[in-house]
Amino acid sequence: MTSHEQPGAATSTAATAESPERVAKRRSATRGAFFAEFVDMFDIYLPTVVLTPALIYFQPPGQVDPGTAAIFTSLVFVTTLVGRPIGAAVFGALADRLGRRRSTIISVTGFGVITLLIALIPGYGTLGVASYWLLIVLRFLDGICLGGGYTGALPLAMEYSTKSRRGLLGGVILAAFPLAYVVITLVGLACFALFPLAGPDSAYAVWGWRVPFVLGALLAFALAVYYVRSVSESEIWQAAEAAKAEGTSQGGAGRPLLAVLRSPAFLQVFGMMTGFWLTQNLVTLFLPTTVLRNLVGLSNNQLTVTLLIAYVCLVGSYIAAGVIGQRIGRRRFFVISGVLIATVGVAVMAVLVNGRGLPLGLVILVVVVFSIVVTAPWGVVLPYITERFRTDVRASGFGLGFSVSVVIPSFYAFFLEGLGGVMPYAVAVLVLLALGGLLGAGGALAGPETKDVDFE
After folding, report:
1. What integer best gives the mean pLDDT of the chain?
2. Checking CA distances to 64, which of 11, 28, 281, 318 falls within 20 to 30 Å?
3. Phi and psi for 282 in degrees, rounded to 5?
4. Rounded Cα gap, residues 419 and 415, in angstroms
5. Distance in angstroms (rounded) separating the CA atoms of residues 283 and 374
């Protein structure tokens, strides 16, 4: 059962949505969701930007085998990735049973505490190899809490939004993702400049990397305080709970996770998001680490400047995508975006994989165009996924649909290796990008239009 099967909102409810009190609640919930997404992405990028250069602090002295070093590095990211779907399931169910606000406060406080603990971990010289494994365990627990941070906050904001503004607000909230990347990159550059990195005993390796982690913890605590003081529980969720208590609605029968997993809506969202996560990973992971660095040949400074410009542009493009999706329909927007990724995105990627020797200005322009085309769906996913599920399972549906679908695309490197066995590597990249776009478009076609769904 999806939210399409619910009755429409009463006229009195629509009137309430325009009251000053309702407007104030909507603004508070929207601010909270925006900063929840920002803090979540800030914490996610901490290892990528600031911790990787300092991993020598957690490793045995002397030369470490490159393969072993690669495993050490990858585990820091993989454990967080594994934790996120678990957190989405746990805190999604909590948000559907106990409330979006309470779930958000618990999860945000959790990853604030864990992030602070990571900042206090001693190095190899103090704990030996246990310091590294302590880092891995804490990042896994951090991933669980991070997976719950947006699971309650984002549906809460959507439930306070008027129907006609969900697209705009969804785009604004998700725009916190590229903004967080810009901020953490600037913070990282400042730390690199202030604390020189020159071996495991240098200022940066010993304590310079800790500063952004402490900042991330403080942001999380500030967010938790904001939810305690300023954000009200979802009135729509409270009404649904009251209806269940009165016996007028069976809802998820107290088992929101099971209800979501049995829902055709979940399978459709999972398929669509798997395709768009695959294309997203090619932007956020494969593009900077392989294409721009190895194939195009950008230096570290050139790469940083290119990505900063691209992500600044993405802040505006996410918001624009949300507005366009509201106008033309979310289903139609996803289908068009998937086709554009499989055509225009593939053509632009073909320029990049053969782009060695291109002027830096042209590379930046091409990267901006590619990033906007491929990430366009992300300005629309928040309202769409929340509209696909009933109120009593909405947080679980959003958390699972958004996070579980990232698992398969995370193995994109293995897919590229497999395709590389039967075709040139550069062609394999284009094939995988096209497959992701078409899978996203096909997944959207398999579902209904949602922009006129009533949550009440």
Report:
1. 88
2. 281
3. -70, -25
4. 6
5. 7
Nearest residue to 151 via CA among 105, 217, 183: 105
Q: Are 389 and 3 in contact (CB under 8 A)?
A: yes
Helical residues (DSSP H) of 231-359, grouped into ranges: 235-245, 256-261, 264-281, 300-328, 330-340, 346-353
- 112-126, 327-341, 400-414, range with greatest mean pLDDT: 327-341
Spatial distance between the Cα atoms of 222 and 207, rounded to a whole number of angstroms: 23
Report pLDDT digits (tens) over 40-75: 889 888 887 888 888 888 877 766 666 666 667 777
Identify the pLDDT of residue 7: 35
The helix (run of H) or strand (run of E) holding residue 382 is: helix 381-387
DSSP 276-287: HHHHHHIIIIII
Q: What is the pTM of this model?
A: 0.88
φ, ψ dihedrals at 423, nearest 5°: -155, 165
Which tokens is 245 given?
Answer: 């208590």
User: What does the alpha-carbon distance between residue 375 and residue 318 come to, in Å, rounded to a whole number?
Assistant: 8
